[in-house]
Amino acid sequence: MVTQSWPPDAELVQRLCDRDEAAFALLLDAWSAGMLRLARSFVTTNASAEEVLQDTWMAVISGVGSFEGRSSLKTWVYRILVNTAKRRGERESRIVPWSSWAPDTAEQDRSPRATSACCCTVPAPAFGARWRSTSLR
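User: That's the sequence. What structure does it adopt?
Assistant: Structure tokens below.
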């Protein structure tokens, strides 16, 4: 098994700052699969995890110039990923999907309005006939 020689962090950072696509491709190929698995643990769908991963790489590219070297490059990138994924996961937890607003199909079948021609599922007001007989002025 041949192991690939991994450049030092300082060299990678400099190459990323110089917009070296080969350096970016090296990181992308080596780290993306693990990053995607980690992102998936914070968000609800695979698509969200992929968006988190994309947002992370965009943040890395735009912020690589501010990398201070106090940690390894991989730690810095993963920290960006975790922060991005947590933020996305928190936002997703506050969102109610439209599908949860739809009534249960078994409940619809028992509804007297399910057989009517009306497609509206909003019940009529309690004051019924009086309300319908009032003319608008």
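Residues 127-135 have pLDDT under 50 and may be disordered.
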